[in-house]
Specification:
Layout: E1 6-8, H1 10-22, E2 26-30, H2 34-40, E3 43-47, E4 53-57, H3 60-67, E5 74-76
Parallel strand pairs: 1-5
Antiparallel strand pairs: 2-3, 3-4
Helix pairs in contact: 1-3
């Protein structure tokens, strides 16, 4: 029973990350166009005060581990 893991979908993961980032006036945004994806990756972080891009990520799971939003009993499931 201890090995049961709960799936976390993209929407919930983004909400959790944004709660952490909001403390520092930042927000996670998904790239919409092909040019955004090629320049910034799949995900990027903007400052809510200046609207400037402050960082970019191609892997949301890497950002989730940096911000410690996934608990040990959870895993990211993109298919949900």
């Amino acid at each position: 029973m201890d090995n049961i893991k709960t799936a976390v979908d993209t929407k919930e993961l983004v909400q959790r990350i944004n709660r952490v980032l909001a403390k520092n006036r930042h927000r996670l945004v998904m790239s919409r166009s092909l040019s955004e994806k090629s320049n910034l990756g799949d995900w990027y972080i903007i400052s809510t005060s200046t609207k400037a891009v402050t960082d970019y990520y191609s892997d949301i799971v890497a950002l989730a581990s940096e911000t410690n939003v996934l608990m040990p009993h959870e895993y990211f499931n993109k298919a949900i």
